[in-house]
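During the no-cost extension, the postdoctoral fellow (Dr. R.K.) reprocessed legacy sequence entries with the updated structure-token encoder. One reprocessed record is reproduced below for audit purposes.
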Amino acid sequence: MSTVQVSVDRTSRTPLHVQLAQQLEAAIQGGDLPVGSRLSNEVDLAEAYGLSRPTVRQAIARLVDQGLLVRKRGVGTQVVGNSGQVRRSLELTSLYDDLSAAHRKPQTEVLRFGIAPASPDVAAALQCELGDRVLRLERLRRADGEPLALMRNWLPPEVLDTDPNTLAERGLYELLRAEGVRLKVAHQTISAQPATTEQARLLMEEPGHPLLATTRITYDDHGRAVEFGSHLFRASRYAFEHTLVHR
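Re-encoded structure tokens follow.
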């Protein structure tokens, strides 16, 4: 179990839990708390730092929210750092493209591949009839060997001619571009949902742990819906970032 030297100023206007979180963050960034190390439990940390347990709990929760720490059942609180977190701007790019651009190694495991009847949600998104044939893809995407995202996509069969082996080696948008599909615009929603037992197993999370969920309908330059995606990301490893402009 790891601890580092911490010195808090009780006369400062900065709350004690923020001071503690800032010093622990500096220790993580500086390598004094290396990735993979485990923190001592809250009781031991509170005693070591002369702080209350609620103060320590607040500090740890702050670092968990920042993606620097993660709580694992049976393991405790572990340092994950944020250098491995994928930060993705809100642009019409694919996860495969973004990982490659960030010099991360994307790896894809194709879980499902084939023709399926369009469900009501898929039919509405792709502007087709209920039960029409659509190409259904389900993939587990890893970054540098670590599970990152569970990705499900539905496409009109005529827009993409591929196979599971090719899909495992290349990004979906790259394959669409190679087919002459010019992606123009997409409508995307972002939310959170608890992991099911199977999703947790694939993503190496605890059942019920919150996942970052997105749905996306992508249109080509003719206004045709060419992709409907429903993706789940590990919130501790993945974040969206965008700039807000005042009107």
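The beta strands are 69-72, 76-79, 86-89, 106-117, 133-143, 146-155, 183-194, 210-220, 225-234, 238-241. Residues 123 and 130 are 5 Å apart (CA to CA). The remaining legacy entries will be reprocessed before the final report is submitted.
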